[in-house]
Amino acid sequence: MKISTTTNDPWHCVADMQVYFVHDSLQTRLPEAVESKIERARQAGDFPSRQEGTLSFYPESEQGCAAGRVLVIGLGKGDLNGEVFRVAGGRIAQKVKKIKTARIVAVLPEELEYPAREMSQYIVEGLILGSYQFGKYKTVEEDDEPRNLISELIIAATVQGDILAAMKRGLTGAESACQARDMANEPGNHWTAEDFAVYARKLAAEFDMPCKILGKSELRKLKMGGLLGVNQGTTVPPRLIMLEYRTGRQVPVLMLVGKGLTFDSGGISLKPSAGMQDMKYDMCGGAAVLAVMAALGRERPDNVDVVAVVPATDNMPGSGALKPGDIIRQYNGKTVEIISTDAEGRLILADALSYGIKRFKPEVVIDLATLTGAVIVGLGHHTTGLMSNDDDLVQRLCRAGEQSAEPVWRLPLGKEYSKQLKSQTADLKNVGGKGAGTITAGAFLQEFITDTKWAHLDIAGTAWNFTEKSYVPPKGPSGVGVRLLLELIREWQL
Predict the structure, then answer these.
(1) CATH assignment of 2-160, given 1.10.3720.10, 3.90.960.10, 3.40.220.10, 3.40.50.2000?
(2) Which residues are marked as active site?
(3) How confident is the model at residue 49 (pLDDT cuts 50, 70, 90)?
């Protein structure tokens, strides 16, 4: 989508639609024709200024408006924050999906005590995220109506400042999240471990990033028993994808590890058939991590080096599959007794974490995974579970989560939880029993971290069917984690 700004009188800007924003208790300057329509709506008992309220009309030619339509978006009556404008952007997108609107002029309500650059960023984010559609596999008939897509957004403001730069930030974050949604929406037979590798190579070529892909024979030489073990029941070979963003400066190294389980049947510990089609989303962590790398390639920050590691496979119940009771040896030498083959994500992440830490020596590691159903029981589909061995990193992630409206909630770790993973026949069990399932999964991963600062984000509840908003689909993948991690990196300081 093309983005730009203007200081011209927006009422005379040629567009398919002009958009104005009104707050219920704060005055904003509006064209007389718009004020008149709002007043008539109020007299009729409608209140377009309430949050998510809208009013649309076709201006009369004698009113001098250069747009075919006018849309008024309500901002509510509470305190203003980024999420208010993100939701407003999503409301514009919802309207556009119903009508043919390619060129939009959005008029900033500059009388409000809120930074214009932040308004601009969040409106763009909401608009792009709310416009998302995945129709790749739908057959298009000749008489089908074309999808209504926005081709250009112009933000009108009397004072420009760094509004365009803020719009670009919003565009990069939102488009990258949509890329993660695209990957997650791909069916398991069209998005395999090799497709992850192909996408990583594409990013490497586009943004000049070092890229290394390990195949099955290389994984065997490295003795990655977790990734190889999970892969035993399938005919599709595994991949370990490594992609690096380097600044060329002496800066901290942040390693992002994303679970790339392209389809999870549960293996021998087979999942119920009802809803199993959603298990194509078990690679949302890996999708988010690579989408962040795409965003870094576009923005080129100079404050941190970032390494992405994605262990990728599917988990199938083939004749060679892992069995409950089997014992495997992970990359770092620890042995694991398999209690449930459906607790496979931690096995592939364990290899990726220990190998990545040894190879790249990062100052900080963050892993992102749709790891446990237990996190949905505890936090629903509204908040990501967070576990960490470092309080400062937790605070950074909490701030980034608040800023991006992708909230996180810290859960405890400790020897009491680690004790649940003790095995009589191996160093560890891969399941710690019914109690504290999300925490014991995090405790399992912690066994492969050594002394590195580390955080684990369990996005099983938020990666799909995330809290429904104007810019979040009611069903399907949300792209969660992309904007959170991008916000963390943008603000990263020693």
Answers:
(1) 3.40.220.10
(2) 271, 346
(3) low
